[in-house]
Structures are given as C-alpha cells and as structure tokens.
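User: Could you go from structure to sequence for me? I need the amino acid at each position, not a summary. Structure tokens:
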C-alpha cells in the first residue's frame, strides 16, 4: 500500500507501507475522502519533512477491521477523524479543566499512542479507536470529510462567542474563514464583515452570509470605522494565518474588544503592544476541539445551518496530489477546499 507524505519542501513522496492490521485498541479505516488542510500547505512550503501523522488529518471513511478491545465502533461503520472524551485523570482534568484535557490534546496533534506512520492520504489507516467517531447519517461524504476543520471553527466561535447583534470581522475567506463566518452568524452576530484580498473568495463570503466584504488594509479599517462610528468591531476572528494579520486584527477591534486566533501563521509576528494595552484587548487562541463538539457541529451541518458544499471546490485522485499541492501553495489558486479520493 502506498501513502503520500510530505518528505521535503515542495516534495510529496509515495512511500510503501504494509496493509495495516489493528492493534487491540485500534480500528482500520478505509479512507473515503481526505481534505487538504492549510497546515498541510504550510508543511509543503517548509523545508524538511512534515510529521507523518499530521500530513492528511481531515478524513472520513468506513471501518474495515477492529481490534480485540474495541466495542464502541464496528466493522462497516462510517466514521470521521475526531478526539476522545476528556480522560478525567490527567492534571488538567483533575484541576477541573476538562476542556483542556491532555489526552484530548495528544489526540488532536496525533502524538503518543495516537501517532500513526502516515495520515489520510492513503487507501486505509490504522488508528486508535478514540480517534474516530460515528459520522452523522445525514451527512454526505463531502460534508463528512470536512467535519474536522469545521469543528475547529465551531470550537473557536464557541470559545469566543459574539453577543447578539455584535459587529464581527473575519479575517481571511479560505475554508477556515468561510466556516468561521457561518458559525458566527449561527451564534448571533449582528453584522458580519469578511476581510479578504481575493475578489472571488469575497464573493463566496457574501453568498455565505457576510453583510460586507472588503480588502485587507486601509479599506477594511475605513469600512469598520464607518460601520461602528469609529469604535471598531466587537469580535475579530483571525483566520488568514499570516503574521501581519495579528496586529491588523487588534487594529480592527474596538476598545475592550476580543480577538480570536484561529489561523496558524508560519512566522513570527510584529505587534504594537502599546495598542493592545490602550485598547484593553482580550486575546483568545483556539487549538483543536472537544469530543462533544464533533457531535454538535455534525448536527448543525446536517440541519443546514452551515454550508460546506459551497466551500468544496474539487476532488482529486490520490495520484494527482502533487499537482494539487503545487497549485494550492501558489497563492493564485481559485480552489478552496480540495478533497483527495484514494479509491
């Protein structure tokens, strides 16, 4: 069996692996679709290999084998990649911070007992059974393949919720920004502003509920000032994942406003601490999700509250993954969410 891995900068290699057999606490999943994530693109553009277990971490599929100790998942079940419930015994759980469970974090980053020799850019994968959750039966394959990144955005908005009627800015209109935009609308935002340099992505944002779309920089600052009488936005979700966007998020927020960091910048950011102090900005960061949030986000998507079909712009066979990564990393691609079909 061959799996695609990022082995160096702008290099994807097909490496040979034995067909997986589950350990006692594992399941083998036949991959149906696996999404190409912004993290994958960062890894592709960075010198050196990407961690194998992270390369292709947005997948859905059908369980084909189960280990002897597994009784919560059965052969034939359709699953999505997820995380376990809080363990109840780690330091965070014992301190009453169940949502910060270290076991959940370990599964989020596919480390320790949740590590795998490759990711979902493969025909099948053996994983600890707690890295899977039953897919909502009302989801299409395309929707199920996008539940992992969708739940990241759900977790971020749930952690930094707008109040009813708030002015909300979402920086970036890639898959993460477009999903965050929709969750903010579901959460009760009053005015939604999408900040995005690409005109085509701004159009998608408008179709998904943005009241205003605008280019980054002075145009965004001027629009926010106009709409808020100079006060600034109540909440700014930073989904662009570029270093300068951190300070621009603070610039767009009002005094006493909130900034939520979701996008992962690949380099250090230059900030203006005096501006953060003057505005008394509350900064939140979101990494991952909880087990329960997978169930919740799947239900919202199944109910039609969040549109993932509009974000999916194409599916490719595994053999075309190098070309897809090259296009997506160019900065000029018209694609949003590309799914890889290893079948």
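Assistant: Here is the amino acid at each position, in order:
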């Amino acid at each position: 069996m061959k799996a695609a891995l990022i082995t160096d900068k702008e290099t994807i290699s097909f490496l040979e692996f034995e067909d997986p057999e589950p350990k006692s606490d594992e399941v083998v999943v036949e991959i149906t679709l696996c999404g190409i994530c912004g993290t994958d693109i960062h890894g592709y553009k960075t010198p050196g290999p990407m961690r194998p277990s992270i390369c292709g971490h947005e997948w859905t599929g059908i369980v084909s084998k189960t280990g002897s100790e597994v009784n919560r998942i059965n052969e034939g079940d359709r699953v999505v990649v997820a995380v376990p419930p809080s363990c109840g015994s780690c330091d965070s759980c014992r301190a009453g911070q169940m949502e910060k469970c270290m076991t959940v974090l370990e599964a989020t980053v596919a480390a320790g007992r949740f590590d795998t020799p490759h990711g979902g850019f493969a025909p099948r994968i053996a994983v600890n059974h707690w890295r899977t959750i039953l897919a909502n039966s009302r989801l299409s394959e395309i929707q199920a393949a996008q539940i992992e990144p969708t739940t990241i955005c759900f977790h971020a908005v749930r952690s930094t919720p707008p109040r009813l009627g708030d002015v909300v800015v979402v920086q970036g209109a890639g898959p993460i920004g477009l999903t965050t935009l929709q969750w903010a609308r579901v959460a009760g935002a009053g005015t939604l502003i999408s900040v995005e340099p690409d005109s085509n992505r701004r159009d998608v944002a408008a179709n998904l509920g943005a009241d205003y779309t605008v280019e980054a920089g002075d145009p965004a600052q001027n629009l926010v000032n106009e709409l808020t009488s100079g006060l600034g936005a109540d909440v700014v979700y930073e989904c662009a994942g570029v270093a300068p966007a951190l300070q621009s998020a603070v610039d767009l927020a009002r005094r006493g406003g909130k900034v939520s960091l979701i996008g992962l910048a690949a380099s250090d950011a230059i900030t203006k601490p005096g501006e953060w102090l003057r505005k008394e900005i509350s900064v939140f960061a979101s990494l991952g999700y909880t087990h329960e949030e997978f169930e919740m986000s799947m239900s919202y998507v199944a109910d039609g509250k969040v549109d993932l079909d509009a974000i999916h712009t194409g599916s490719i066979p595994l053999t075309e993954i190098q070309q897809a990564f090259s296009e997506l990393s160019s900065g000029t691609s018209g694609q949003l969410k590309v799914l890889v079909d290893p079948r």
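One structural detail worth keeping in mind: The two ends are 12 Å apart (CA to CA).
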